[in-house]
Amino acid sequence: MAIPCSPARVRATTRLTPHLIRITLEAVGDWTWHLDGIGDERVDIAVPREGETTADIATFNLPEYGPGWVGEEPPWRHYTVRRVHEGGRRFDIDFVVHGHGVASSWAERAEPGHVVGVFTHDHPHSYYSAPHDAAVQILVADATGLPGLARICEQLGSGVRVTAIVEVPSADDILSLTSDAELDVRWLTGSGNGLAPSRLAEAVAAIGEPNEPWYAWVACEASESRAIRRDLRKRLGSARDRHHAIGYWVAGASGDMPADVEE
Prior knowledge:
Blueprint: E1 5-17, E2 20-27, E3 42-46, H1 57-60, E4 76-85, E5 90-96, H2 102-109, E6 115-119, E7 136-142, H3 146-155, E8 161-168, E9 182-189, H4 200-205, E10 214-221, H5 222-234, E11 243-249, E12 261-262
Parallel strand pairs: 7-8, 7-10, 8-9, 10-11
Antiparallel strand pairs: 1-2, 1-6, 2-5, 3-4, 3-6, 4-5, 11-12
């Protein structure tokens, strides 16, 4: 059975940094977004084609749409819900913009009144799953993983120590992160993100094994997340249930297609 694709209208757009645009969406109809989402919960968004202002939602709701679909598939991409408002009637999505790709291009021209399609799963989908005893957390992201990392930090309580390593295109893309946890944020600028070789794996390799129970969450380009995963497992001896390394996109793929797979 196909997952329903429901309409949502752009209510506001905000340029947070040169490469990050926040788009606030408002549900059209009687559906709402989840209120119990974990920090990196995923949302699948159908976006308008070039030159259009409304996504082709009808195609996704055809009875025959699904695995094996042979028709032209309208554009859609995976994103992270940054924040939820008004009981799920409104929610924010932060779009990384990079001058190419259907979703990035739409985000740069999006205006209030544009309509997207939202795949309304029955429950939130996420990877972040820190064990209850994880007194130390290592959070790693490039620009695509930054919205999830920021929300994870906001949802953490006191008594947790966090080392966050974030790689963004430029110093102007650095954001202020807030949390009740004890935050140590290390920013890498001018590398990765499709601009130059990433330095995330190198930065993680410089971290020694914490002396308390710990957990790691990684969200970045697929090959870099694999390198970090190997380091977490081999050098630091992290058990499989104490880290999640997710490839959010694939360098060099058409339009830098999303990977969205745990490595």
